[in-house]
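Summary for the lay section of the report: proteins are chains of building blocks that fold into shapes. Here we show the chain for Phosphatase PAP2 family protein and then a coded description of the shape we predicted for it.
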Amino acid sequence: MSASGYCAVCRKIFIAVVFFCLPGVCVAQRESLRDTIEYRPGIGAFIVPASFIGYGLVSLMGENVVRRLDHTTKNELQEDHPLFAAHADDYLQFAPAVAVYGLNAVGIKGQHSLLDATGLYLLSAAITGGSVLIVKSATHRERPNGAGFNSFPSGHTANAFAAAEFLRQEYRDISPWYGIAGYAVATATGTLRMYNNKHWFSDVVAGAGFGVISTKVAYFIYPKLKRWVSGKGAMNYNVVPSYQQHSFGLSFNGTF
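The coded shape description reads as follows.
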């Protein structure tokens, strides 16, 4: 399957998950009186991922030291491993999120119920996917292997780091090693994207930034969305998945 074909399949699978799972989560939230843990990140929580995105944006500004490092890294990887072809990155990008469900299955509970965790992950994935698709379309950067003009940022890397931050958030009060393991897997995913000659180094760095910020934003707004959906807030909101012109997202309809 070609890269474009694979991306199309991934989008269809994700859309199906959002359409069928999110309404169920919203209905269940109406029946639950349990409050979701409030997450109030300071500006410092966004400095590192924002700097990753900034690094990537610099690479788009013509020939500079960042862009030259992109070409140098690509040339060295291709020279040392010209026949490298591994597709583990297609699956590793979801591994940290799967670990959350695995840990719950063996009795190691995270910060939230499995229902809330699912809602958080779906929201994070929607923010990640939407932001990445918009930026890919806007930047129109050619991939290092010439396979397309949707290189910046790396979607696989963004998904992996979004999932890693999801794992870290859920288990940060139990042990920091869960988050460290998740970020190690995410880093491996980004590295494989470069070894497979699918992305430049700056694509991967920026993708990491987008993924981490997306999950942090999801944890910040999810409690508010939950209160609106359950009728506890001052406004009533409906959260409706949408899919238009090959892009997916969430539509919010509210009344005062």
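Put simply, here is one thing we learned. The mean pLDDT is 84.
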